[in-house]
Amino acid sequence: MPARSVHGNQNKHGRRQMTTAYATRDQLVDRYGQAEVVQRESMLPADAVDKALFSASAFVDGYISGRYSVPLNPAPEIVVQCVCTIARYNLLGESATERARDDYTDSVKWLKDVQAGKVLVDGAAGVPGNTASATVLFTTSPAVFRRAGRP
């Protein structure tokens, strides 16, 4: 499998923006077949597949950017799978099958688990300062004054 090139440019707010998707058209074809991808391309604008992959990559970044430095380079296989699933669902639109909807729902659930810290993304670099040693823990003492019994 060829190496994916994911580069980031900084926007006017100093944030990195993706210029390449985490998955390619060929990877989408490998997962869902040439016939399905060509059929979608015949019904949509010429660059619809690339836009769907880019959009799905940005969608993934939105969930994982609080825990990991984005863009991921290289993208772990689970992220490529997730991007392909989301792009496929978006390309299918109203003609999405129940399986495509379930796969999409599972991918979003996985992303939410990553965001919540329930799942780790192997090989991804964490956000600087987002470590257990940077976490502040505190305890409180019982309340001295209470509202109970007040008029």
Name the helicity range.
40-55%
Number of strands: 2
Span of the ends, CA to CA? 73 Å
How is the biggest beta sheet arranged?
2 strands, antiparallel
Strand order of the largest sheet: 1-2
Low-confidence stretches: 1-16
Mean pLDDT: 82
Question: What is the radius of gyration?
Answer: 21 Å
Provide the β-strand percentage band. Answer: under 5%
Question: What is the 3D form?
Answer: elongated
Architecture overview:
With 151 residues, this protein is mainly α. The chain has one domain (8-134). 46% of the residues lie in helices and 4% in strands. The protein has helices spanning 25-32, 34-43, 48-64, 77-92, 98-116, and strands spanning 8-10, 16-18. A hairpin with a 5-residue loop joins strand 1 (8-10) and strand 2 (16-18). Helix 1 (25-32) packs across helix 4 (77-92). The relative contact order is 0.14.
Topology:
Blueprint: E1 8-10, E2 16-18, H1 25-32, H2 34-43, H3 48-64, H4 77-92, H5 98-116
Antiparallel strand pairs: 1-2
Please supply descriptive tags for the structure shown above:
4% strand; 2 strands; disordered N terminus; two-stranded antiparallel sheet; mainly alpha; 151 residues; 46% helix; 5 helices
Summarize the structure.
The protein is mainly alpha-helical and 151 residues long. The chain has helices at 25-32, 34-43, 48-64, 77-92, 98-116, and strands at 8-10, 16-18.
